[in-house]
Every structure is written in C-alpha cells, then in structure tokens.
Design a protein that fits this description.
alpha/beta
Length: 446
C-alpha cells in the first residue's frame, strides 16, 4: 500500500513551469512508447482511467502529450554520450513522402552487448544522431559519420544494409579510420542471396504470379482462409519464407485423405483454385530447404553475433544441411560470407551481426505517425529518439526540466524547415484565395 501511495504521489508532483504532474507525463509517455498507443488514444485512456477510478486528475490533450514526447526525444538525442573506442553504430535511412530522407544512427557500447542467445531491444540502444537531408550520396554519408564522431568518438563497428550511398560513405569512413570495421546486416545479405537465386528462376516467377492471382480470386470467397500471404512491393525477398511456408502447408492440407468430407471448404472450389500447387512440389522442396538454411544462418548470427570462426559453429547447427545442387551452393556461400565477416573480429571479441533493431525502431516511428507519414517529415521525427534507450522517471524529469518547447521548435526549423504539409497548406491556401477572388469577379459581372 505504501508503494502504491508513493506512485500516486507523482500525480501531485508538478515540475517547475509545467501544468501537469510528473505522473501525468510518465503515464502518457509509457502508453505511447511501451504500449504503442496513439497520441490521441493515450489522452483518452488517461481520461477513462481517471473517470473509472474517480481520480481527481486533469486530462492532458494529445498535443500537450506530443510536446512531452518531442522534448524527451530531443533530450535523449542531445545529451552527452561517453566517448569510447568500443562504440557500435547501427545506421539506416528512413524515407518519407517528398525528397527528404534521414540518416539515423543508433549505438551501444560493445561491452553492453546482450549475452549470447538474446537479441537487442529498443532500450539497449542510444540515439547518436539524426541527419535529415534532401539528397544523399556516399560523400554526404561520410561527412555525416564524421560529424557523429564528435558525439561518441570513432566507433569500433558500423553495421548497415548495403544501400549504395550508405555502403560508399562507410567505405570512405573506414579508409580514414582503420580501427572501424563494416559489418553487413545478416538479414539483408540473406535476402540478397535469395534474390540472386530466385530472380531469374522461371519456376519461381511463375509460382509468384499464380500465388498473386490466387489471392485475388479467393480473398472474397469461402476459401479466404487458404489465401496466400500478401507480397511486399519492396524488399520482397525478405518474405520468401512466408510464401513458401504457405504453399507447403496448403499442399499438406490438399494431401489429406478426407479432404472431400471437410465441411469448411468446398472440394471442387479447392481443386479449381489451388490444384496448381501440386505442379510445384519438387521446386517447393528445394525452395523450402534453401529458406531453412537462410533462416538458420540469420537466427544464429542474430542471437550469437559475429566472432572468430563462428561459421564453424554454424556448421554444427541442427538442420543446417543441404542435399540439392542449388541449396548446397547457397550453404557454401553462407558459410563463406560469415567466415569473411568473422575475420574482422579480434580474438575473444564479439561484434553485432544484425541491424534489425533499427528497422524495428523506424517501423514504430511510422506506426506512430500513421497517415502523417504521407506529409513528409514532421516534428514527430524527434520521437524516434524517444523510442530508444531507457525511459525512467529520472530521465523524464531531466528532459522536462532541461528542454523547453522552443528548443524543440528550433531543432525542427534548423533540421527540417518547411514540412510537406506546410507547403501543401500554402499551395491550396493561395488557390482558395484565388478562387474567392474569381467568384467575386463573376458575381460582380453577373
């Protein structure tokens, strides 16, 4: 009871120059950051909880909560980081509508890597830098990386996908800083291998075409439960496993001896819409074996990292075998790639092998922005920094105390300037005035 009363006391502790209590701020931010609640819904939740428990609490608007989120993000992004030689940078671009893109750098110390068999989560990484730009190339990325050195010192490792401008910029940086190694994210490498193997495979292309046609034909019928998964327009080779898994499961279903007496589906409809899968049975076995190899390699590196001769340990993983010509070739390439990566690690050293955490963070930002991501970058870009690292009561207090709203607005003005939404309002605002003048002239003429 004492601890509960202590927690409730936060709702009467109002920071200087604030209207709402620390409890309001903490609860609102937890709803948004930990529960993926929208900004408007978080305000509504506080209102419902206050009313349900008859608590005499005022309710912050969603806009007030948004400012808390941005102030927290600004604080985490700009607070001083300890300079050290063991920083690991995880970098990627996030892209919105319009010409802008933003280079995001997250980081953690090598000594803080999670123990083997665990993966990074959002709280494990720290926001190092965000660089919104209207154009990017290798030289620009290199200059951005050099600027980030001011915050952490030269990193031990940079991990990224191999986007052309990122790859070139990192290569230039590593030439200037020989102590830094560049690791290729395991998931993107696996997708690149699958793309090379499948892109020009006529059987695979025909299979994908038929799967797409089948989805359109059955998604509004009683066979909707058997529809293939939706295929991504971008990075489509990252979900090959889902499509192959679907096909294998449907084939197993079709192989059931009592299929004709299944009351959930019409056997004739199934035959008409899905019988084509049987023609791909040999290919599916090969694709399934290929996908299993890739997924095992990806999972091994994601959970264990990169270390000297780690490819030898991968060879011993159960299920990492190949029996067909294509899959044998894929297995050999996987082992060769991981062996090359492992040579960059010092003896008894472990490097990060997966940049999945930054993709997750960027995905969470886009989910938070919802339809606003069609308005280009907005002030919510700062919320990306709020998503990562620990959000404790002490961190929130420091953020609310040290970051005034005007500083957040200055950051947005300096780094983003006029948003796409602002430009849209200006354009259509001027058109509206022109229409009004035209209407007035027409009325006067009549």
């Amino acid at each position: 009871m004492k601890n509960e009363l202590g927690d409730l006391e936060k709702f009467w502790q109002v920071p200087s120059y604030h209207t709402y209590s620390l409890g309001h701020i903490h609860l609102y931010l937890l709803l948004v950051l930990s529960s993926s609640t929208s900004l408007r819904a978080a305000s509504r939740v506080i209102e419902l909880v206050s009313g349900f428990f008859h608590l005499p609490l005022s309710v912050p608007s969603w806009y007030t909560g948004r400012l808390w989120l941005l102030r927290l993000g600004y604080y985490k992004l700009t607070r001083k980081k300890q300079k050290a030689a063991d920083w690991i940078w995880i970098i990627d671009h996030t892209i919105q509508w319009g010409s802008e893109k933003c280079l995001v750098i997250l980081g953690l110390r090598q000594k803080d890597l999670p123990v083997a068999e665990t993966i990074l989560n959002h709280e494990d990484v720290e926001p190092i830098a965000m660089f919104p730009v209207t154009s990017s190339n290798g030289q620009i990325v290199y200059e951005q990386l050099e600027q980030a050195v001011e915050y952490t010192g030269v990193p031990k490792e940079i991990i990224s996908d191999h986007g052309s401008d990122l790859k070139k910029g990192i290569e230039i940086f590593c030439q200037q800083h020989r102590q830094t190694c560049h690791i290729y994210d395991i998931k993107h490498k696996m997708a690149a291998i699958l793309k090379r193997e499948l892109k020009d495979d006529p059987d695979w292309n025909e299979f994908v075409k038929l799967a797409n046609e089948t989805r359109r034909k059955v998604q509004q019928t009683s066979l909707a439960a058997l529809a293939p998964p939706n295929q991504r327009s971008k990075s489509r080779y990252m979900n090959v496993d889902k499509l192959v898994k679907w096909a294998m499961q449907v084939l197993c279903f079709l192989d059931q001896p009592n299929l004709e007496v299944n009351q959930d589906f019409d056997a004739q409809q199934i035959e008409a819409k899905l019988s084509w899968l049987a023609e791909f049975r040999p290919q599916l076995l090969q694709w399934h074996e290929m996908v299993q190899l890739v997924k095992l390699a990806e999972s091994f590196i994601k959970f264990n990292g990169i270390y000297r001769d780690c490819h030898i340990d991968l060879m011993q993983v159960e299920g990492f075998e190949a029996y067909r010509i294509k899959t044998i070739r894929v297995r050999e390439e996987l082992l060769e790639f991981i062996a090359q990566q492992s040579e960059q690690a010092e003896p008894n050293e472990r490097l990060l092998g997966s940049s999945e955490v930054i993709e997750s963070v960027i995905g969470k930002l886009k989910n938070m922005e919802s339809v606003q991501n069609k308005s280009g970058f907005t002030g919510l870009l700062l919320s990306l920094a709020a998503i990562v690292s620990k959000t404790t009561e002490d961190v929130i207090q420091k953020a609310m105390k040290s970051v005034p709203t005007k500083r957040v607005r200055e950051w947005f003005k300096q780094n983003i300037g006029k948003s796409l939404q602002s430009s849209r309002k200006e354009v259509f605002g001027s058109l509206k005035k022109a229409e009004q003048k035209w209407d007035e002239k027409q009325w006067a003429f009549e």
